[in-house]
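USER:
Before I trust my own judgement here, I would like a peer's view. Write it directly below this note and I will take it from there.

ASSISTANT:
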Amino acid sequence: MTAAVLAGVVALVVSLLSQLVIRPVLIHRSVVDTPNHRSMHVTPTIRGGGIGVAIAVAVGLGTAAVVFQSLPLWIVAGISVLNAAIGAVEDVRGLPVRVRFGLQVVLGLLATWVLVVSMSASFWWIPLGIVALVAYTNIANFMDGVNGISSLHGTVVGGFYAGLGVAAGLPGVTAAGLVVAAAFLGFLPWNLAKRRMFLGDVGSYLLGGSLVAVAVYAAFSGVSFIALIGPVLVYVADTGTTIIARWRRGEPLHEAHRSHVYQRLAAGGLGHLGSTAVVSVATLATGLLGAVVATAAFPFQVLAVLGILLVLAAYLGSPRLLVRRPRL
């Protein structure tokens, strides 16, 4: 446990301090997110801060890999950084959708295959790993639209995975979760400061890739798959229902928009932090209920499943309940 905490502290410090070097470089290269009519921000903002978070994840996981002499932890670090690198290219130069998708599929294939071989897992995991990496990378990218949401998501889900590692007596899983949580926590002050920075695609790709990599590593280590998917259900539900609604309205699915639940909450009066808080609380709730489903006996499992459905329904319906309506 001490070694896991050490790796987390290293990631936190690197994430906090690396932006002192990275921010001037991004300003010099004019890596700026310029707002448009679909943006949730109103002033041009430096993006690409996820580079520092990626460095923090790499250093933190590298520290844990050395301490635990763990090849899988090196692999988790590699998956996270390579996925972030795809996002970095998108930030700086842009990539066609097909190229991004193809790179993600190839990375998902190679990453899951290497983890399967190194941890002697079933090869049936490979197609699931590919789908998980591609899907959640893009989900994390879609959900990165208000201040603090991605940093807190990484902190909450990474911390939850660390807790699952503690409960299962798996220090490697604990370290991996703590590193991801600490790295994203370290970026939060930069994102919320007056002269704020955005993670950029490098950060949202890192978020999706690192959480999937840690989850697959944890599943291969013996952690319940059901417990691992609990804390990501809010992101999946928001993105899934939004895509279906836009498809039914005949809207282009690849265009930027402001119709996610979290975006409607932010625009409707809760603001960035209020929306982020609602998402984070719902994420924590589904995570805890997912752990109950994975560990409890009947009838508590059924009650926990119903609880998850209730939380998701409440979240998806929250704009109707929490958004301010104009007075007639």
Q: What stands out?
A: The beta strands are 32-33, 45-47, 197-198.
